[in-house]
Known about the structure:
Blueprint: E1 5-9, H1 14-25, E2 29-34, H2 37-49, E3 53-58, H3 64-78, E4 83-86, H4 101-129, E5 132-137, H5 141-144, H6 150-170, E6 175-180, H7 188-195, H8 201-206, H9 216-227
Parallel strand pairs: 1-2, 1-4, 2-3, 4-5, 5-6
The protein binds nicotinamide-adenine-dinucleotide.
Amino acid sequence: MTGRVAVVTGAASGIGLGVARRFAADGYQVALLDRDGEPAEKAAAELRAQGATAQAYEVDVADWAAVRGAFDRLRADLGPVEVVVTSAGIESFDAAAGITQETWDRIIAINLTGTFSCIQAALPDMLAANWGRIVTISSSSAQQGAPYMAHYSASKGGVIGMTKALARELAGNGITVNTIPPSLVDTPMARDAEARGLVSVDAMAAMVPLGRAGTPADIAGACAFLCSDDGSYITGQIIGVNGGMYI
Ligand SMILES: NC(=O)c1ccc[n+]([C@@H]2O[C@H](COP(=O)([O-])OP(=O)(O)OC[C@H]3O[C@@H](n4cnc5c(N)ncnc54)[C@H](O)[C@@H]3O)[C@@H](O)[C@H]2O)c1
């Protein structure tokens, strides 16, 4: 049991929720950040009922000042932040010729800027401790491209570049920074895209070499390893947890 303070963004649903559950089971004190306050609070209450220390914070990661405020509150509640996993994100499927400035800006603001602002808010604690673990959730769309997702793929490519830059900058401070780019994970995001007729989760799962869609627990397991002491010599890496979809 670590007792370390871990912040998970996008923790009300899908991959973020899976990571929050895994961290709680591993003994971290977990701060669940999400723009949807009610499901985040429900998830935190579920973890507390299992004996974990968990608090929910409603915040839009695209709002820089709100992120600072949320970190001030969670630091007061739980203590200095040692681990950050950034899973908050949105997707959109739009033909490149029709992407509006509003849609482009919103995706970059949440997926890329929101990832950075949450990491930046945690850095003073990690620098003071000379220890930290950061895992960003990017996407295989930034590795292999994805039609109708130029904006989304660009935001996730930015996350990968930022992860590598931070890894180099922070390596001397005992802070590791890695990214996991999922391919197909069966989450509300994927099912929502399916409900809108944009993808078929089962058809895509059949194309995965390991024969199934990923689960939030698959991603959480890799996160747990990267954030553990066993992961101390891994930084700046793209850790594919994708069933062999992108090799
Ligand atoms: N599911 C997949 O197949 C897949 C594949 C590649 C990458 N990803 C990435 O994984 C991450 C998690 O995706 P998921 O499938 O769990 O999706 P999800 O929709 O199930 O969960 C995302 C969570 O992020 C929250 N969120 C969205 N915008 C926010 C904001 N502005 N501020 C705070 N919280 C916000 C949502 O409320 C939600 O709880 C995303 O970054 C996504 O791009 C997912």
